[in-house]
Amino acid sequence: MNAQKRQEIFARLRDHTPEPTTELHWTTPFELLTAVLLSAQATDVGVNKATARLFPVANTPQAILELGIEGLKEHIRTIGLYNTKAENLMKTCRILVEQHGGEVPRTRKALEALPGVGRKTANVILNTAFGEPTIAVDTHIFRVANRTGIAKGKDVVEVEKKLLRHVPREFRQDAHHWLILHGRYTCLARKPRCGSCIIEDLCEYPEKTEL
């Protein structure tokens, strides 16, 4: 795929959704970190229901620690893998309090040192909470990038590096939100909705559908 096509693809995605953002509900970097930690193998809707119960009670690292592991589990037990997620969140809160003054760190190295935080989560925090032009590659973005031809790669790191290289600078800040939304609602895994896709004529996927 050439640069002109990529430019037009992201211009259309921007025109369609001028101010994209995560569908997780958050108001502080710590709330976003918590929501992302809870979102693995869970829907954003499910996470939002759980955090709607949790955040009014505890939405800081210290408050989570004071809630205790069993109290935390009680608030998030509707989410899959809640036992493991609760343990990781408690460990993360302890590190934040003891090493970062209760604040979410703003560096990739410090973020990835937190339990349950990998490269994708760190990228989400850096981009969405702190405004850095990182691109978090999840399953939606990996599929869309490869299927359309925007950035083909064998694994998420390769796709991330190619996106950072090929996405025009003016679109880089919001690129991963546009690609996630496109993968979630249009470029579906089993049967993409090519017939209603705003970038169908630019997409290089050879097996387009009519719907």
Kindly list the characteristics that best describe this protein.
211 residues, single chain, Endonuclease III, domain 1, mainly alpha, endonuclease, HhH_base_excis_C, Endonuclease Iii, domain 2, lyase
What does this structure look like?
This protein has about 210 residues and is an all-alpha fold. The chain has two domains: about 5-20 and about 135-200, Endonuclease Iii, domain 2; about 30-130, Endonuclease III, domain 1 (Orthogonal Bundle). Helices cover about 55% and strands about 0% of the residues. It contains eleven helices and no strands. It has helices at about 5-15, 30-40, 45-55, 60-65, 70-75, 80-100, 110, 120-130, 140-150, 155-165, 175-185. Helix 9 crosses helix 11 (about 175-185). The two termini are about 25 Å apart. About 35% of the residues are buried. The model has no long low-confidence stretch (mean pLDDT about 95).
